[in-house]
Design goal:
The structure is a homodimer. The first copy, chain A, has helices spanning 24-28, 33-41, 43-54, 66-79, 148-167, 191-195, 198-204, 241-244, 263-272, 295-307, 310-317, 328-337, 377-390, 415-426, 444-447, 485-499, and strands at residues 84-88, 95-100, 107-113, 132-136, 140-144, 175-181, 210-213, 224-226, 228-229, 231-240, 252-253, 340-349, 358-359, 362-371, 397-405, 408-409, 432-434, 455-458, 463-464, 472-477. Chain A is α+β, with helices and mostly antiparallel strands. In chain A, strand 19 and strand 20 (472-477) form a beta hairpin. Chain A is globular, with a radius of gyration of 24 Å. The interface between A and B is large, with 88 and 87 residues.
């Protein structure tokens, strides 16, 4: 999942459900009826296309099926009506770049990913590469498999919209520029290279914005629209006896601790300086460039606090209390506005069952640092280094593991977002605006220089368990609050018309 | 290896080497010549017996070949002349108890282990269960395999001594009581149960002491005699959101860190209170019962400092400096006299390549705490709990992982140790006395109540790479400072006569 957390988005909106489809919206869109009919007629084809896609694993982290995945992405684009689609090599896995010229006045950008997360098949109730249709109580028929929801399901639904438009004898109402990467799940290291290459950049610069198809419904049917994302740095702090010049340069019997320094304590002591006793970042100068929330953003938070369910959010987060014992409004503001330093993992020494009498020569902490405007990863890395050096921890290795993302912001009044809100309203859903996701993604490739485009996610569908076992895309909804795949396809048709 | 560190023991003794064998000792022991001849005659049989033993893996940690290992141990004892040998079940893996009544006035206890450490065969240059004879430059012909040195080689050499004595038409000069456990490598959890059962306790209580056969030569040929061991506690401190009542109770997206407390920071902050800025234990009251070294022990350290090679010790420890920048004499004293708190491993969250945007709900530290007289594990566990509770970390789980060992001390003037020194002298080696090993072992099963016996390790042989790949026992020495297997067998014959 492009690191957005959708589970907070559980407002009770102004009436939801497919039942509402029949009323104002359907009337307004009566000229699209032939397209809708094609969507229904082609339901099996849509599902079969998604199944075929899920059955092609492409795992960047394990270098499995990447060329095949890129070629499949290329074929999927050409089949859906893109006039050209090419595989662009990068320093890592290839990117697919495709364009569809509909002769329309407006052009819209699309950001896809064709890679998926790793799997442990033993953890799945249905084999992750078989894309079986499974009946799920309380939901309906789902397509289960790795990538079903993140992100092949929504992307396949978008492509199905293009198939339906063409089958109805129409042209898409906007021109399209598609950039599909194969490294989203490993932090998009080569996306900037691909997006900013002359040809792709020229095509993207004509777009009114870039969006990624996504399952934007929460489990209660509500939808939120994210207007930005935090930046982040995924890094690792590593203490070793060798670099420290103290303690052993190899793992040694723990009895030696009586006369040897321990790189592990050195790391613990360094880590301890990074946060306050209550766990807030304490890196020198960390908040120097933090911009306060605007009045508009504060107003969004007031609305979110009124409409979102705190108990449900606590249950989803599996917590009894918010940090600093914050109240609900404050917890939402924290989520949007606080930069953070998180320990993703501590790694080193003996990790097996029981104990082992060893004194490790190396110990490391994987850290995740989230940034808010106007912090930049470069500045924070420098501040972290200086902070450590100032306290006698200058010998620690700081390794950037990827996820070197900038903050992104898309205005609520951009064409991309206004069209989203209007389509959701047609379906009876008053989408909630979320000032900034607590997650991060490489959106700054589009929002930053030189493109400075609006970005967003869109799709009236439901999926779950991204990155986890039993990932699925809802196909036939038996839950009146959730939309199935055909409705999702329809939402893309409507969105393209709204953007036009 | 029963956690002694032998590598420090690199004094330049008063002349070493098999070449000296011909002189004073050989004359004194001329009545043992028929036994020595049997040792040489039975060389191939001795090696074959060790090979067969190594080829039977018994890995307690993986529950592999434990019953087979116990049965083999039983057969080995009976074959060597023990009149009775029985397998005693425990709550874990069985113990073997055997007795040899030679009608002698004195009785000596033997502590064996039939289990070995785990292996990763890929790391071995010779397959770990094949027990091949390999030519090693600078050493000679070695028998390579898991357990070859730790502890099957020395134990097989001891059994070979009994075979030789019998073959020469003699009876052993002392009666023997053997206790062989199968859980040494997992911290001997059931050794006390076995050793203190009525039958075994009654047999052991007649012993003048208990010794374990071992490769007591260092790589330069020198020998030290350990007079005690530190106690230890292997434990784990675990922070979880559930027990803390703060932060998540399951792993969650790291973006949530803006409004959730982190069990990982909670653990880091707790750990940080356990040591001073220079890494010394800072647990409240930790050193309350520490007994200063005696004048005799200080004198031993003076001698060790004069005779041991600091540069070699630093190289072995792979360090440039000792903790607290201690000089050599102080580093030796530290090793003997300092209680320690060591991080064996930090475990939790994401440990794979790169990063993963997760906020772990659980984080743990595996700790090794070494004790000196008169600290006890029970007292220190209570102090650790109180220390943590006092600082707001009372929610951390403290799990004892085993290695709950008491300190042990054996007087230098005990019969067991005096006999060792006299035998080594006969071989031209002035063994160095080491007040206390920095390692720990379940020796308090014998030294503590109710048995209060002297304990020690003995054996004039050389082996290496215990717990590591390419573990070996030296068989045919091509190094004039090191003894081969026949010499080692002979040293056991001599030791039994010296004890008698």
């Amino acid at each position: 999942m492009p690191n957005f957390t959708r589970r907070d988005f559980m407002a009770s909106a102004v009436g939801t459900g497919a039942a509402l489809l029949a009323t104002p919206y359907a009337r307004a869109a009566s000229d699209r009826r032939p397209i809708y009919q094609e969507i229904e007629r082609r339901h099996d084809e849509t599902v079969a296309r998604l199944q075929a896609w899920v059955r092609q694993p492409s795992i960047a982290a394990e270098n499995i099926g990447m060329q095949e995945g890129a070629e499949m992405m290329q074929r999927l684009a050409l089949d859906a009506g893109f006039q050209q689609a090419e595989i662009i090599p990068t320093q890592g896995h290839p990117t697919v770049f495709a364009t569809l010229d509909a002769g329309a006045p407006k052009t819209v950008g699309l950001y896809f990913m064709y890679d998926v997360k790793q799997v442990d098949p033993a953890e799945w109730s249905s084999p992750p590469w078989e894309a079986r249709l499974v009946d799920l109580p309380g939901k309906g028929t789902v397509l289960m498999g790795r990538g079903a929801s993140n992100q092949k399901g929504p992307q396949a639904a978008f492509l199905a919209a293009l198939h339906a438009i063409r089958a109805a004898g129409r042209k898409p109402p906007v021109n399209l520029v598609l950039l599909a990467e194969g490294e989203e799940e490993i932090g998009s290291p080569n996306l900037p290279q691909a997006a900013h290459s002359p040809k792709v950049r020229a095509a993207l610069s004509k777009c009114l914005g870039v969006f990624m198809p996504g399952n934007e419904q929460g489990p209660d049917g509500n939808v939120t629209i994210g207007l930005g994302a935090k930046g982040d740095i995924e890094c690792e702090l590593i203490a070793t006896g060798e670099r420290w010049g103290r303690g052993p340069a190899k793992d040694i019997h723990s009895g030696q601790a009586a006369r040897l320094d321990q790189p592990a304590w050195h790391l613990v002591q360094a880590l301890n300086t990074l946060v306050t006793p209550t766990g807030e970042p304490a890196i020198d100068g960390f908040t120097e460039h933090v911009k306060p929330l605007s009045a508009t953003e504060q107003a969004m938070l007031d609305l979110l606090a009124a409409r979102l369910d705190e108990a449900a959010a606590k249950e989803t987060a599996s917590t009894k209390v918010w940090a600093r014992d914050a109240n609900w409004r404050q917890a939402l503001e924290d989520l949007v506005s606080r930069p953070t330093v998180t320990i993703e993992g501590l790694v080193g020494g003996y990790a097996g069952p029981g104990g082992k009498t060893t004194l490790p020569h190396k110990m490391s902490a994987k850290l995740d640092i989230r940034l808010v405007p106007d912090m930049t990863p470069e500045d924070i890395v420098e501040k972290l280094k200086a902070h450590l050096a100032r306290r006698g921890f200058g010998d620690l290795d700081l390794v950037i593991n990827g996820g070197f993302n900038y903050t992104t912001t898309t205005p609520a009044d951009s064409a991309l977002i206004r069209a989203q809100r209007s389509v959701y309203r047609e379906y009876g859903i008053e989408a909630l605006l979320w000032p900034r996701s607590s997650g991060s993604w490489p959106g700054s490739v589009f929002t930053g220089e030189p493109l400075t485009l609006a970005v967003g996610h869109f799709g009236l569908g439901f999926g779950a368990h991204a990155h986890a076992p039993d990932e699925y895309q809802l196909i036939e909804s038996k839950n009146e609050k959730l939309y199935g795949i055909d409705d999702m396809v329809r939402s893309y048709v409507d969105y393209l018309y709204a953007l036009a």
